[in-house]
Write a structure and sequence with these properties.
Shape: globular
Strand order of the largest sheet: 9-8-4-10-11-14-13-12
Structural class: alpha+beta
Helix content: 40-55%
Strand content: 15-25%
Number of helices: 17
Radius of gyration: 27 Å
Largest sheet: 8 strands, mixed
Length: 476
């Protein structure tokens, strides 16, 4: 990762900036704190507050993904100072460190750790500035985006190695990206109560790995959008594993007649939400009333026994049902909750006919709620909802880079952080405890020394050793 430096060649290159920033030895005196007088000295040549990025770069979890993304983007510049792979690496590592916008390039381009992680030889000066990064974002075309999405999806499949999973569960969920300008595809959404985009986030519901994310208008999805994405995902999975069992899970917005027909034709199982309607209320009328009576009976027993505290009663029922636009009857499960505040009924439609209703609702359908946590990781942990560009293609490109950052951090947590206290930590926690570490860099002729606080040895020493083993550097 770190580059050897030929100082003789440095002297012969007029355009190369000095490796060390000139030291300003100005002193600022502070008042007395805790019985001691404080002063500030600007005398450290090379520091970084993102020293933990070196652990990710050294582990190698990002190398192939960044290189493959860069390889499918058509170069549009002549004699560039920064190649595409370097720009992608810079942008993705900045996202991982918490700097989500292209404007942050101007503040981080001199950081030696970031430069080395992005693949920039130290003797060649700083990384790209904001204008260079913004030009890249605005020059990527739709064909490039399709290829990038394919690379990310193939990277997800490659993560299983030679041992295919027993099943792949596709969890699809739209989530709002609020907009504040004239972004293309931005619409006013009455449910959100604001102008927004509503991209699809698609995860593997069994592992939490991200498959892809697709930018779309801020409105309820239509059948064509859903089927288009499913076609690509299912085809990619079946191309690698023709007999793989695939399950599709989503909320009621995705339970459309065309989608259900497509799932049946392509032998994809499903468990999706179903909106309430009068026909469903009539179909499950007896079961709902039985749940009410059962609640009243048990409530009387509790009162006679002088038991205190509120409680609820849950019933499950199932039946065959077909809306007027459906081509066939489907199994519908009703979850009926009766409590002090009344009755709450939720419906789902499933392709499974043998498993019991309670299991299908709680263990199959409700587990898709984890997708909300994964989206939270993307939006709050990685800032993926920063859709600040005007062009939809530019915002899709930014979204895919955030997806790549998710995949890299997931891989880092799964490998390097396995067995540590952070093996199940959120991305925010990993950034705060592992990546946002202050370090002093000593650039020598043949190596770079990264000096961390000795107090961190007990907490982070194991993480850095595992990262070094992952890169093949060993423990030395």
């Amino acid at each position: 990762m770190f580059q050897n430096i030929d100082y003789q060649s440095l002297a012969n290159k007029k355009r190369i900036q000095p490796l060390f920033t000139p030291v300003n030895t100005a002193q600022i005196d502070f008042p007395t704190f805790c019985g001691r007088k404080w002063s500030v000295h600007f005398d450290q040549p090379e520091l970084s507050n993102d020293a933990g990025l070196a652990a990710i770069a050294a582990s190698g979890v990002a190398d192939k993904l960044i290189a493959d993304i860069a390889a499918v983007i058509n170069e549009f510049r002549r004699n560039p100072d920064h190649d595409i792979a370097e720009l992608i690496g810079q942008r993705v590592y900045q996202i991982i460190s918490g700097s989500y916008d292209a404007d942050d390039c101007d503040h981080m381009r001199e950081d030696i750790v970031l430069r080395s992680a992005a693949g920039r030889p130290l003797e060649e000066g700083p990384l790209a500035s904001q204008p260079t990064m913004s030009r890249l974002e605005n020059r990527v075309r739709r064909a490039d985006l399709l290829r990038i999405a394919q690379v990310i999806f193939q990277h997800y499949l490659d993560g299983f190695g030679d041992e295919p999973p027993p099943m792949i569960c596709i969890d699809m969920d739209p989530s709002a990206h609020l907009t504040y300008g004239q972004q293309q595809l931005s619409l006013f959404n009455t449910h959100v109560g604001d102008h927004c985009l509503m991209p699809f986030y698609i995860f593997d519901g069994c592992s939490g790995k991200i498959m892809t994310a697709v930018l779309r208008p801020g409105k309820t999805p239509v059948a064509g959008e859903i089927i288009t994405i499913l076609k690509r995902l299912v085809a990619g999975i079946r191309q690698r594993w023709p007999k793989m069992r695939i399950v599709f899970r989503a909320d009621s917005h995705h339970t459309k007649p065309e989608v259900l027909d497509w799932l049946h034709v392509n032998e994809v199982d499903f468990a999706t939400g179903l909106a309430k309607n009068d026909a469903l209320e009539r179909l499950f009328f007896d079961q709902i009333n039985e749940a009410r009576r059962d609640y009243q009976r048990k409530l009387q027993y509790r009162q006679q026994g002088r038991e205190s505290g509120e409680w609820i009663l849950t019933h499950y029922a199932d039946d065959l049902y077909a809306a007027g636009s459906w081509s066939q009857k489907e199994r519908v499960i009703a979850r009926i909750i009766v409590g002090p505040k009344g009755v709450d009924v939720r419906y789902i439609v499933v392709s499974f006919h043998k498993a019991e209703a309670k299991y299908l609702y709680n263990r199959v359908y409700c587990q898709r709620g984890n997708a909300e946590l994964y989206i939270k990781e993307c939006k709050l942990g990685l800032g993926s909802d920063r859709s600040s560009c005007h062009r939809a293609e530019s915002n899709q490109f930014r979204l895919l880079l955030h997806v790549a950052a998710y995949g890299i951090l997931y891989g880092f947590r799964e490998t390097v952080l396995e067995g540590t206290k952070w093996e199940r930590a959120t991305f925010d926690e990993i950034r705060l405890r592992v990546l946002k570490v202050a370090g002093r860099l000593e650039v020598l002729k043949t190596r770079v020394k990264l000096h961390l606080a000795s107090a961190l040895e007990e907490m982070l020493g194991g993480v850095w050793r595992k990262a070094a083993v992952g890169s093949g550097a060993g423990s030395g």
